[in-house]
């Protein structure tokens, strides 16, 4: 897992940590420049926790252990100040809003890149390549991500579906060929419909892939593979959807290109055929 943007990751995942892990997290955020020179034992003493809590905290951050945390902190401290997340203020002028929206998008992408696990991306791409059918589901803004997945993989000649009706999707997955894949999309990892479908997909032996904000959850524990985006801090006006959707589409783009590169000649041929078909349809509409 990438180790960039660790401080932002700690801030955003704090509510999902245990109380003992939160003690460690608050200490790291308070004096990150001191932590890089500490031992596990010193860190435990200074944060009023235990060595085991320090190790668990590191693993909750997606790191292998305390040494990797120190490397990640060193990388963060060596960078320029992060762009940051911003919320809307009363009677704010449009120019400032443009800058804030850009800042939020850039920060979300940076944090998400820091969470990228290249090995998982490659395994998911290979699983989708081998799957006879792909099903994607999300609610609200996540439904747009599901539709993007279906549209992209349809262009590559794959049987890909993003049904909004849970009953239709359930029937389709019940009769899906062996090796088919289900992608459950929920930024909060708590959408009950997605969780229900994930359990059904697991029961029917589909390859299961969760696509959530970073952190432990029942949804991620049910899945064969987990794709994570950054968790943006809470705000009064800026909803999670505005911060997460850029990162979600970015991850899908990365996955799409890795998938396409498995058999690049085949992928190019399929994309060209779909492009030609759409152009032919447009020309016919104009002539008619």
Question: How many separate domains make up the residues?
Answer: 2
Q: Helix amount, in percent?
A: 55-70%
In whole angstroms, the N-to-C terminal distance is 54 Å
Structural class: alpha/beta
Q: What is the CATH first-level class name of the largest domain?
A: Alpha Beta
Overall geometric form: globular
What's the total number of strands? 5
CATH superfamily of the largest domain: Glucose-6-phosphate isomerase like protein, domain 1
Estimated radius of gyration: 21 Å
What are the secondary-structure elements, in order, as H or E? HHHHHHHHEHEHEHEHEHH
CATH topology of the largest domain: Rossmann fold
Low-pLDDT runs? 235-240
**Biggest sheet, strands in spatial order?**
2-1-3-4-5
Mind summarizing the main beta sheet? 5 strands, parallel
Q: Per DSSP, what share of the residues sits in E-state strands of 2 or more residues?
A: 5-15%
How does CATH name the architecture of the largest domain?
3-Layer(aba) Sandwich
Helix count, DSSP H or I runs of 4 or more residues: 14
Q: Could you tell me the mean pLDDT?
A: 86
Structural description of this entry:
It is a single chain. It contains 14 helices and five strands. The protein has helices at 6-13, 19-30, 32-35, 40-46, 51-60, 66-78, 94-115, 118-130, 141-155, 166-174, 192-203, 218-222, 240-262, 264-287, and strands at 133-138, 159-161, 181-186, 207-213, 225-229. The longest helix has 24 residues, at 264-287. It is globular and about 75 Å long.
């Amino acid at each position: 897992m990438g180790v960039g943007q660790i401080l932002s990751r700690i801030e955003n995942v704090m509510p999902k940590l245990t109380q003992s892990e939160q003690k460690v997290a608050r200490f790291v955020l308070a004096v990150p420049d001191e932590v890089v020179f500490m031992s596990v034992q010193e860190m435990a003493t200074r944060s009023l926790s235990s060595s085991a809590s320090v190790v668990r905290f590191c693993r909750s951050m997606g790191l292998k252990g305390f040494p990797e945390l120190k490397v990640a902190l060193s990388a963060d401290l060596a960078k320029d100040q992060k762009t940051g997340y911003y919320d809307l203020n009363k009677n704010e002028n449009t120019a400032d809003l443009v800058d804030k929206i850009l800042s939020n998008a850039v920060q979300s992408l940076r944090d998400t890149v820091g969470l990228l696990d290249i090995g998982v991306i490659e395994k998911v791409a290979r699983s989708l390549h081998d799957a006879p059918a792909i099903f994607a589901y999300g609610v609200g803004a996540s439904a747009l991500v599901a539709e993007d997945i279906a549209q992209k993989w349809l262009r590559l000649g794959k049987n890909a579906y993003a049904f909004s009706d849970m009953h239709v999707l359930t029937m389709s997955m019940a009769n899906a060929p062996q090796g088919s894949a289900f992608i459950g999309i929920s930024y909060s990892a708590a959408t009950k419909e997605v969780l229900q479908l994930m359990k059904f997909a697991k029961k029917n032996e589909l390859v299961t892939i969760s696509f959530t904000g970073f952190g432990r959850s029942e949804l991620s524990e049910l899945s064969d593979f987990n794709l994570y985006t950054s968790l943006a801090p809470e705000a009064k006006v800026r909803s999670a959807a505005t911060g997460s959707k850029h990162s979600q589409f970015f991850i899908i783009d990365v996955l799409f290109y890795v998938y396409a590169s498995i058999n690049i000649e085949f992928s190019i041929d399929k994309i060209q055929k779909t492009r030609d078909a759409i152009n032919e349809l447009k020309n016919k509409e104009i002539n008619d």
